[in-house]
Amino acid sequence: MRADYIWMNGKIIPWDEAQVHVFTHALHYGSSVFEGIRVYETPNGPAIFRGREHYERLLYSAKVARIPSPYTVDEYLQATIDTVKANQQRSAYVRPLAFRGYNTLGVDGRGCPVEVIIASVPWGAYLGKEGLEQGVDVQVSTWRRMAPDTLNALAKIGGQYVNSQNIVMEARDNGFAEGIALDINGYVSEGSGENIFLIVKGKIYTPPLANSILGGITRDCATQIAQELGYTVTEAVLPREMLYMADEIFFTGTAAEITPVRSVDRLPVGEGKRGPITERIQARFFGIVEGELPDTYHWLTMVE
Questions:
Q1: Is the dihedral of CA 26, 29, 31, 32 positive or negative?
Q2: Nearest to 20 by CA among 98, 72, 87, 75
Q3: Does residue 138 or residue 124 have the better pLDDT?
Q4: 208, 237 in Cβ contact below 8 A?
Q5: What is the band of 127 on the pLDDT scale with cuts at 50, 70, 90?
Q6: pLDDT tens-digit profile of 272-300?
Q7: Cα–Cα distance between 48 and 121 in angstroms, integer?
Q8: SS3 13
Q9: How far apart are the first and last CA of the chain?
Q10: Which runs of E-coded beta strand occur in the chain?
Q11: Angle at which helices 51-65 and 217-228 cross, to 10°
């Protein structure tokens, strides 16, 4: 997973020249904020998926983490276009990262310089192409999501993803593709890097922000599509047992896109394969981002 060029601190440089000191504050304390953005190949050329919304969230995360951003949303978006162009990519996964650099080793790193990179690399389906079509097997994790007033669940801060690492490593060690975390009160929260939707008797449910979830951008897309297709989408506190009674379950996320879940804790979800409602939402999503259907939501920014 690499490319020819990377954008770093305002300049396009060769990939191997993007380096930091081993005393970089973010290496020691996780003092970074980041995003994941997809660039999709369309008949009209590569297109950035909801880039503006991703960079607005990056600036929110930076605000919460007290990491002053050196760039604006428009500057980040242009830098992304420049990076994709430099790498001559038709599709890519884009990783913007703002982090505290090298100055002090104290926990309060606000005296450290802020550095920023934007990388665009090849990356296919996060949970596998087969997973998009057949669904994935998951477990309910023994690791809980953070309690209120402990960390910032609505921000993508690097250090917080130790929790996500625990969830996914446990799941894969146990033979599953992913884990579903519960919140501090035992209610359904999210995957290690995905939001979750449950479908019960034709109605769609997803946990609210208060259940220690990230306000996902693809989550918002799935909600809009589902409502356009005539389904009711309800944000609700979901007990763990609803995972076992659901007729369909799917994950959403920039990396995971829209991925069905076929089993939870080795219990089949519905018929143990991608369900019809999930398939309809998924088909419309990919139709839009791959340029086969009109971009009525204005989600795409063309790389020109």
A1: positive
A2: 98
A3: 138
A4: yes
A5: confident
A6: 999 999 999 999 999 999 999 999 999 99
A7: 13
A8: strand
A9: 24
A10: 5-8, 11-14, 32-34, 37-42, 45-49, 92-100, 114-121, 136-140, 178-182, 188-191, 195-200, 203-206, 233-235, 248-253, 257-264, 267-268, 300-302
A11: 140
Given a cut of 80, whether residue 125 has pLDDT beyond it is no
Contact 29, 101 (CB under 8 A): no
Tokens 């953005």 correspond to 37
Select from 55, 125, 41 the least CA-distant residue to 89. 41
- What b-and-e string marks burial along 41-66, b requiring 16 or more CB atoms within 10 Å of the CB? ebeeebbbbbbebbbebbbbbbeebe
DSSP label of 145: P
Nearest to 299, CA basis, from 289, 284, 291: 289
Supply the pTM of this predicted model: 0.95
Cα Rg, the chain, nearest whole Å:
19
Annotated catalytic, 156?
yes
Q: For residue 13, what are the contacts with CB-CB under 8 A and spacing of at least 6?
A: 5, 6, 7
Identify the active-site residue in 63, 85, 129, 156.
156
> Nearest-5° angle of CA 109, CA 254, CA 83?
70
